């Protein structure tokens, strides 16, 4: 039987009790344990019911749901981790269907998404703006309201990016990184009920903080991030036009230029009215809802634009110098000898010994991340590989970690570059976060592995580097002329 752990990040909402009660009365194999991660800055009592489930409570210190989920899955020891939000209600047959979903997956499938059901208004009235927003979860892709991941994939990818501080985009980010690493994601048959959201008068305005997270998504995945994550087109362009029109109307009015002020004001009014009507017409049209839509439709465009600009500034701040540098081996540190099993053939590339000596003198940890499929192919024995690597250290000095993938392309491992496993394992061995590492290599797989792990990448092309790989690295990473230039980029343009 497939073993799984349920991880639930919470801020102590009363809905947690109903969730755990539903799990405890579910039909089918229950979880090995439920890990509840209290993400309140000052933890207190949690609404835990009497249940036959094994429930463990951990703390994440108010760092957001991404950090809370990381705390949870890292504490688990089962093959599968099922994430649930603390305000959902799994159906009675959820445990049975989850196990069926997981046992039906192929080896290259990393995760299974449950089907989210959002109940509509019970009175027969039209849904409010916030209720329609919640209803969108029923068709959203890869949301962690109900998402089960292989623990090995979470470990290889580094888990959730904790730079996402809200329950917004952090799940899409993980899914995209996992898919870029070559895994597939599938939908399951289990169902989970998600109640409609309710909030105060300005809830929709506060929700615009997510635009800052959109800036991080664009930074990580490029302008096509919305298409990749099925996020829809968004309204930021219209919000920017609305805000500029309103600002221009005020500026022209202050300068006593009546005609331009009137033109800009009419443009602002038309754009604002269009936005408000799009939100009003599908709704219940009660007095409270009409007032809410009118006021918040005026506020949302400038607030959304402000959060997006703040997010763009934040993600474009210069990143600190690398806390660790990870090198590919062949054609980066030493000249490539295909499937080399002879230590006498190890020849360092020009400059390798010097830059490594300087990095060690500066106290910068260094490691090696290398694909060596010759072992799986029977062309190199493990002892021969160890002898070659020992010769590399004899010539270039010691490395803080060696992370080597000995699998072939079709083995379905989590470590072979461009998957992130080697990078995340090296970062762990060196005691740093993956995002604080720089990976230096000679082919696109090195750069893709860095990106998938959340690290930075620097490409040092050789004659075997494809033109498309160089072009991609120019867009999304860095390209250096030689090893010294690459280390200089990693260390903040210092001269090496």
TrEMBL record:
Source species: Amycolatopsis methanolica 239
Top-level taxon in the UniProt lineage: Bacteria
Record-annotated Glycosyltransferase 2-like domain positions: 5-128
Major subcellular location class: cytoplasm
Gene Ontology BP terms: carbohydrate metabolic process
Source organism phylogeny: Bacteria, Bacillati, Actinomycetota, Actinomycetes, Pseudonocardiales
A GO-annotated cellular component: cytoplasm
Location(s), subcellular: Cytoplasm
Protein name: D,D-heptose 1,7-bisphosphate phosphatase
GO MF annotation list: metal ion binding; phosphatase activity
Family recorded in the similarity comment: Belongs to the GmhB family.
Keyword terms of this UniProt record: Carbohydrate metabolism, Cytoplasm, Hydrolase, Metal-binding
Pfam family, one: Hydrolase_like
Record InterPro entries: Glyco_trans_2-like (IPR001173), HAD-like_sf (IPR036412), HAD-SF_hydro_IIIA (IPR006549), HAD_sf (IPR023214), Heptose_bisP_phosphatase (IPR004446), Histidinol-phos (IPR006543), Nucleotide-diphossugar_trans (IPR029044)
């Amino acid at each position: 039987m497939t073993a799984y752990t349920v991880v639930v990040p919470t801020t102590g909402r009363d809905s947690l009790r109903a969730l755990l009660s539903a799990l405890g009365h579910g039909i089918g194999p229950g979880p090995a344990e439920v890990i509840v991660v209290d993400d309140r800055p000052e933890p207190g009592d949690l609404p835990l019911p009497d249940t036959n489930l094994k429930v463990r409570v951990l703390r994440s210190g108010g760092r957001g749901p991404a950090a809370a989920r990381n705390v949870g899955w890292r504490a688990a020891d089962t093959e599968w981790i099922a994430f649930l939000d603390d305000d959902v209600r799994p159906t009675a047959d959820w445990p049975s269907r989850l196990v069926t979903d997981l046992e039906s997956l192929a080896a290259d499938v990393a995760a299974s998404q449950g089907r989210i059901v959002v109940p509509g208004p019970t009175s027969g009235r039209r849904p409010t703006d916030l209720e329609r927003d919640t209803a969108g979860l029923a068709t959203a892709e890869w949301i962690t309201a109900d998402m089960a991941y292989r623990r090995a994939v979470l470990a290889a990818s580094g888990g959730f990016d904790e730079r996402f501080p809200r329950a917004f985009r952090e799940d899409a980010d993980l899914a995209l990184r996992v898919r870029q690493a070559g895994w597939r994601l599938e939908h399951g048959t289990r169902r989970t009920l998600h109640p409609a959201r309710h909030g105060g008068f300005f809830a929709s305005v506060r929700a615009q903080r997510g635009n800052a997270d959109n800036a991080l998504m664009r930074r990580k995945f490029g302008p096509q991030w919305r298409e990749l994550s099925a996020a829809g087109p968004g309204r930021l362009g219209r919000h920017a036009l609305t805000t500029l029109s309103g600002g221009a109307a005020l500026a022209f009015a202050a300068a006593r230029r009546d005609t331009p002020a009137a033109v800009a004001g009419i443009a602002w009014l038309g754009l604002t009215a269009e936005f408000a009507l799009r939100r009003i017409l599908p709704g219940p049209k009660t007095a409270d809802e009409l007032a809410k839509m009118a006021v918040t439709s005026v506020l949302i465009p400038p607030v959304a634009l402000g959060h997006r600009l703040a997010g763009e500034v934040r993600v474009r701040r210069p990143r600190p110098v690398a806390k660790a540098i990870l090198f590919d081996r062949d054609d980066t540190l030493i000249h490539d000898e295909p499937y080399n099993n002879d230590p006498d053939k190890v020849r360092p590339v020009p400059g390798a010994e010097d830059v490594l000596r300087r990095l060690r003198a500066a106290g910068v940890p260094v490691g090696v991340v290398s694909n060596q499929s010759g072992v799986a192919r029977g062309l190199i024995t493990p002892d021969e590989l160890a002898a070659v690597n020992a010769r590399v250290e004899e010539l270039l000095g010691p490395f803080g970690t060696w992370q080597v993938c000995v699998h072939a392309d079709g083995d379905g491992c989590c470590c072979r570059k461009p998957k992130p496993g080697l990078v995340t394992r090296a970062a762990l061995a060196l005691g740093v976060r993956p995002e604080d590492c720089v990976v230096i290599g000679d082919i696109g797989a090195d750069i893709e592995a860095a990106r998938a792990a959340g690290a930075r990448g620097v490409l040092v092309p050789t004659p075997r580097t494809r033109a498309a790989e160089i072009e991609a690295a120019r867009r999304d990473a860095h390209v250096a002329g030689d090893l010294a230039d690459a280390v200089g980029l990693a260390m903040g343009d210092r001269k090496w």
